[in-house]
Amino acid sequence: MKNGAFDYVSKPFRPEAILQTIENALDQKNLNGNKIAQDEILPKKKQKIKVSESISEFVKGVSDAAIKLNDYIELVAPTNMSVLIMGESGTGKEQVAKSIHDKSKRKGAPFIAVDCGAIPKEIASSEFFGHVKGSFTGAIQDKTGHFEAANGGTLFLDEIGNLSYGLQVQLLRALQERKIKPVGSNHEIKVDIRVVTATNEDLTKAVKEGNFREDLYHRLNEFSIKVPALRERREDLMLFADYFLDQANEDLEKEVVGFSDEATEAFKNYSWPGNLRELKNMVKRAVLLAQNNIIPLKVLPHEISVAKSSEESYGLFKNKNEEALILDALEKAQGNKSKAARLLNIDRKTLYNKLKQYNIKL
User: Fold this and answer.
1) C-alpha R_g of the chain
2) How far apart are CA 110 and CA 171, in angstroms?
3) Residues 6+ apart with CB under 8 A from 234
4) What is the three-class DSSP state of 194?
5) What is the strand order of the sheet 83-86 is part of?
6) 77, 26 in Cβ contact below 8 A?
7) What percent of the chain has pLDDT over 90?
8) Quick one: how far is CA 132 from the chain centroid?
9) Domain 64-226, what fold?
10) Closest CA to 220 of 76, 85, 79
């Protein structure tokens, strides 16, 4: 882009995105008499992002984990199956849910997102199922609940593990009967909705401990999708960073075009515990602080600018103390093999083979 390219299209690409980019390029060519002005590249890039934004493109990527995620979305979206989306906080679970809705037969109907952790227990029934005027103190008019608002479309319940046990019972009945009864009403309302839920908790553990109904869990988990953490999809990191850069430029009315080599290296070394949410906030902050069109290392938060590569810490296959490195990683991960594999910058299968090779038993 710095050397004069008009635009670019990231893989996996869509024909409509390429067509839009070509049309933008032809329009620009006609405006400038076969010459594209360098200072007009950024606005055109923004235009492409606006086109793709409507279908949640930023959750896509080119890593193996991203391709698997996108394949699952494409597979389940056309069905009416309930989907449970799992993943750490900040990984973009709501964007995955929105992408499922946008690719489904319900895409023209409402997509209603509800944060289950933000609803007070006392008014939860009213929020989900609505109420009629006078049904309780403060009910000065009829209220449409989330179920009725999502009728014909998709109801996305984020952090489903935060629902009280009593509301879980009501939710299960509503899903089974496909009917709801507003608080204070004697009439049931038929609803046709698809439910997509998300959690960053271990619901199977909550079921075993009696905090989450097993029958509701199976009703919601007809198909499950695991959204990978950002550290598990390193190939996608700078694609997301560039996307958030475009958003920040638009929000802050700036024209930052990229990141310095040192800043890019720091990005790759950092573990991103806050995932995409942390990346988005950090990029916007950096754009605000940048004094020219390139983001330097000095404007990044301290914890990112001083991050060291995991490959430097754990040079597996290049170090004679391989067994010691593995034991150290397992200790740091408190016996969690998946986490230890990430620390060692290898996949789980390779770690299992190494555990067998060195006869390491947990």
Assistant:
1) 24
2) 19
3) 63, 268
4) strand
5) 111-115, 154-158, 194-199, 83-86, 223-226
6) no
7) 56
8) 36
9) Rossmann fold (3.40.50)
10) 85
Dmax over CA atoms of the chain, in Å, equals: 75
Q: At what angle do helices 93-102 and 64-76 cross, to 10 degrees?
A: 40
pLDDT classification of 218: cutoffs 50, 70, 90 = very high
Residue 54: CB atoms within 10 Å: 9
In sign, the C-alpha dihedral spanning 247, 89, 114, 85 is: positive
> What are the beta bridge partners of residue 294?
258
Burial class (CB in 10 A: 0-12, 13-18, 19+), 254: middle
Fold agreement (64-226, 310-357): no
Res 135 pLDDT > 70: yes
Phi, psi of 11 (to 5 degrees): -85, 150
State the amino acid at position 167 in one-letter form. Answer: L
User: Is the pLDDT assigned to residue 228 strictly greater than 70?
Assistant: yes
Domain boundaries, the chain: 1-54, 64-226, 310-357
Asked if 289 contacts 299 with a C-beta cutoff of 8 angstroms, the reply is yes
Task: Return the CATH fold of 310-357.
Answer: Arc Repressor Mutant, subunit A (1.10.10)
The burial of 59, by beta-carbon neighbours within 10 Å (0-12 exposed, 13-18 middle, 19 or more buried), is given as buried
Nearest to 129 by CA among 197, 175, 76: 175
